[in-house]
Amino acid sequence: MRAHVKDPADGGMRSEELKPYSKKRLYIWLMFCTLIIAYFFVYFHRVSVNVVGGDIIDELGGNVSFLSSIYFWTYAAMQIPAGLLADRFGPRWTSASLLAVAALGSVITAFSNDFTAVMIGKMLIAAGMAAVYIPLLKVIAVWFPKEYFPQLTGIVIAVGNLGAIAGSGPLRMIVDAVGWRETFLVLGLITMVMAALCAAVVRNGPAVNYNKGRTAEIFRGLRMVFSGGRKFWPMAISYFLIYGSIMVFQSTLSYTYFVTFYDFLWGAAWLASMIGIGKVLSTVLTGILIGRGIVKSKRLTMLYGTMGYAAVWAVLWFFAGKIEMYWFWFLICSLFGFLSGIMSLSFTQVKEWFPVSVAGASTSAMTVFLFLGASLSTTLAGFIVSKPYAVEDFSLLWGLMLISTVVALFFIYISKENMGDEPVGD
After folding, report:
1. FRET partner for 141 with CA separation of 20 to 30 A, picked from 111, 181, 228, 335?
2. Contact, 41 vs 166, CB < 8 A?
């Protein structure tokens, strides 16, 4: 394995061959593990409002959907700035400083006396957590051989979804045991420890000059991606619509819905966990099937998967407030997660149309659309669903999510896939 070790000049690095299990190689894995643990908490915070938001608004007032939406608005706004910071200062100080901001946000949330303070805390958490993914990808790209990239990014996605699982059922158990304020205080302390570890462990990489010249390169890449026509826009719009609907249910309202109208209580949080488990399974399975050539077309896989996902939304809409059988909804939530996870292939479909030099730009552009979709959908949910909760309001919201998913099918259908017989952009 070729990796990079520290040069005597601070911040500079040089390359050399590393023997298996050498101390230097173990240190590189330590950097990766430090950032991937931080990424676990990115997903944990993303879905936490679903199971803890009700406790917060019961005490302080407010709206669960608006609390969720402020996270997504901030996260979306931070995507490109986080990339610029990572290019200018490197992954070490970008991740360390902004994780400290997230830690501050958790502490503010823990000591909040009104809903406005909680919203400020959530904004700081989102701003900090937005700066984990890009530094993590940069560490993978800089410190590992390029053939490791697909496997390591797959691990990143899996660990992130484990965070989503932990932020549902297990989080509910913790909150029930110690309270939501104490939970956020502990999360703040953990996040500060992660910030300190990033400062102590993460290194930027080999003699890379993180300077302003990189900014022009990033925007050149974004211009190339945005001018991609059917290679980019149908996928961006379809995932914009689908991810918004996913976050309305998984990260915002599924727990409140099942507790309010089905009285599932403790079991409702585990229904939310099944969404995350389903997404992990589909991500792993589709990756294997596509990677081994068993399934040839990513576009058709997403098209059929989204048809199934639309059918799940049709069930949620049609049977809103009906069918008291817990295991029926357990199956529906599992299918919701599994079928929605298939859309992660959109990143690969878009990436294959552009040269490696702008792979980061294509990923960033897709990510921005994802979180804009989540921001708008959860904000819309806040206007439709509020206390006192009425099943008719949820039914209306589920119907709108069904419509957005059906519209997304059209854009998946007209998207253009590179089957390997067409050149990528220059």
Report:
1. 228
2. no
